[in-house]
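Risk register update: the risk that structure generation would not scale has been downgraded. Supporting records follow, first protein first.
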Amino acid sequence: MKIGIIGCGAMAKVIKKYHPEITYFYDTYLDKCEALGTACKDVESLIENVDFVIEAASTDAVREYSMKIVAAGKDLLIMSVGALIDESLRNSLFARARETGAKIYIPSGAVGGMDLVKAARIGGISYARIRTTKNPKTLGVSAKERTLVFKGNAKQAIERFPKSTNVTVLLTIVSGIDVDVEVYADPDIQNNVHEIHIEGAFGTADFTIKNKPSEDNPKTSYLAALSPLSIINLIDSPVMMGV
């Protein structure tokens, strides 16, 4: 399986570290790709040379390139899941993938417990909430103490913090309901904290994830960069665990 990556930032560097066989890369800044492998002049060149594309760039990249990838029958892993809060884009993309046989992978990213949420959805989820706490510098706001800087739903959250709240959109899509979102800025923490609460026919669940920020990009968690690696490993494995 030949893998290509869109976006040659911090996440691509982590993926390349664990999978040095990955050769093809595309970014609007081609010089960033050259340090990792073969820099494709455009996304069409990338698609031609690979079977599986990892989007590790931005929500804009998902909007611009995802349909081209699945239309070509190539599998796609989406990291910037915030783009899929657009229901029209999401439905069209998923429908096109069904037509071409392409598979779309959306990893858990900076959070966990999505296996529980998927199972709970079958029985019915009545309520879901996610509280995200990050350092003010990461969020681009000012705060001298722990401060609630946003309260609303995932669509509003991703518009306000497009690089810091992708997990809110992930939880909304996986749960199938409009999730309550709270974002806090706390100058006393260095980790990115996500607290998820789920209620449904199965009972209730609470889980907290305290992530170390990526060294190269503190707006995202190191775990988020590791998340696509687990999917790559799962594809080639005869045993499926925790799915």
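Supporting record for the second protein:
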Amino acid sequence: MMKKIFTIVSVFALFLLTSCEKNVITYGATDLDVTTKAQVRLVYDLPLVTTSTENITLLKYNDQITSQISTALGGIYPNSTAKYHVVPIGSLKVETFKGATKDVAVYSNTFNIAAGKWSAFIYNKTEAPLLIQDPEEYETGNPWIDTVTYIRFVNLFHKADGTPYGKVYLKGRRPATLPNVSTYDYVDIAACNYKEASAYVPYKLWRKGIAVWSGTESSMDFVLFNEAGEQITSFATSTATVKTPLAFTGYSMTKGVNYIFHLNGKEGTNYAGQAIRLSTIAVN
């Protein structure tokens, strides 16, 4: 009896093995030809007041529709995921449109793109995008020892009159003595002039005494300073008549992940006229 059972099990196992071999699921893929193709992600950083009527709803490269996903100011196209589009090396025409009918022109320009991976920042309606080359591989640190994330800073900030703001310093803001959050330490991250990008800078995350830690720190703050060492200010509310120090709060960041912090928009002479956006892209 045992011999018969063993034989049946053996035949069934052989049937399963044969079935698996005959039904292998494969996905078609083509290697990227790096001699003729580049990869680009578009970042929408026009210095305008934030409004949903300015959302891009259609993107074209070289007169071909590439994507039709609504993307707001300060966002990545398509949507909020840091994906690339494959484009031909050389002269590249980019066009964006807005509106429900996706036919109201927002931006059009032609620029040259070389091999590699690029982030293309649209920061001016009449200028070619600012191209920042992305690394082929990102630093991630030691997963068991390090508690660091990596930050690249891009400065596309304008004065209220639309002219470049100048050098801006990005800093992390930490409570100096927990839980006393009225006193802060400021951690230097990067300083960039207009249309400049920093390298990826390691920034240590806090475990905050958590024994079993997910690797993500939440409720993080970041601030901006000018060359005079003064914190950049803004009109905090629609009724504010005086500017107060500007802070960007509520960030969550994960160890081993690389982020682009891109500062875009402009100062204002009142709340309605300002558009200060410190936007982030998680790139790995």
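The chain has a mean pLDDT of 87. On this basis the risk owner (M.S.) recommends closing the item.
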